[in-house]
Amino acid sequence: MLEILEQLTSLDVINAAIRITTPILLVALSAVITQKANILNIGAEGIMLLGAFFAIMFSYLSGSWVVGIMAGAGIGIIASLFMAVAHIEFNADIFVVGMAFNIFALAFTRFGLKTFLDATGTFAPLHLSTIPKVTIGFLSSESFFGRLLLGYSLFDYLAIILVFVLWYIIYKTRWGLHVRSVGLNEEAAESAGINTKLKKYQVMFISGILGGLGGAHLSIGYTSVFVDNMSNGRGFAGVAAMFFGGANPIFTFFGTLIFGYAQAAGNILQLYDFPSQIVLMIPYLITVAILSFSLYRRKAKAAKRNRTF
């Protein structure tokens, strides 16, 4: 038992948890920015899946991971703007649009896998340009800081930087103030001269980029393979982390770390013959627990406000 605890608290597990967290974090940030404009982007799951597929396809065909990243972000933009038009212009329920798009993304990637890449279930090319790992010359891979800070790809670092960049944009810029105003009271924002429709399109545009990047990192950064239904609930986990963090990028980051650590811990537990069914349940149990906690906290805050007034 002590050996298992030592493994679960080792630097290797922490390192793995951070790497697992990155794609979830990127898609969680995509949900954060739309939530600030009162748009629940449940379609982040589908955007992530399409981003993963297009990134690995274009990276393989072009021989450049940069092209793959651009393809992932590009399809994310197209997908998010499609949902934005349905919601903003035609007043479609964003939750319904998002769930329908998730189903479409799953079907399209299965079709595309067979049609464009001549593969079924899995596409694992021998030669693939992937997002490079970052090396820090003065750190040894055997040292404490080396084991903690090395082994990450470029996007592992970039995602953490984006947390603070997005926080600054949302809370310290005029644009962020306008977006939050739209989310809090759209009619009041319009009366103040804010173009609410434009702000909604802008947050969906940014959300598409972040969600597409999350998918791209999943297929050509965290791994170098595409598997059918590769997102596997990571988009939903990102949305749950957004709720856990109250749509605050920094608190959301901590929420995604919980998911990342849960999966990393599950990988360790499988080595000690824990039932695979229980191990595979862990991320989903964490998702339900975080959503339940978030809803309870929101109800408690609402009740407190009601008592105040």
Give structural notes:
By secondary structure, the protein is mainly α. It has one domain (2-308): ABC transporter involved in vitamin B12 uptake, BtuC. 76% of the residues lie in helices and 1% in strands. The chain has 13 helices and 2 strands. A two-stranded antiparallel sheet has the order 1-2. The radius of gyration is 20 Å and the shape is globular. The model has no long low-confidence stretch (mean pLDDT 90).
Topology of helices and strands:
Elements: H1 2-8, H2 11-35, H3 44-62, H4 65-89, H5 94-115, E1 122-123, H6 144-149, H7 154-172, H8 174-184, H9 186-191, H10 196-222, E2 226-227, H11 234-244, H12 249-271, H13 276-308
Antiparallel strand pairs: 1-2
Output the radius of gyration. 20 Å
The run of helices and strands is HHHHHEHHHHHEHHH
Number of structurally distinct domains: 1
The average pLDDT score comes to: 90
Largest sheet: 2 strands, antiparallel
**Into which percent range does the helicity of residues fall?**
over 70%
CATH architectural arrangement? Orthogonal Bundle
Number of helices: 13
Shape: globular
Indicate the proportion of strand residues: under 5%
Amino- and carboxy-terminal Cα gap: 52 Å
SS elements, strand count = 2
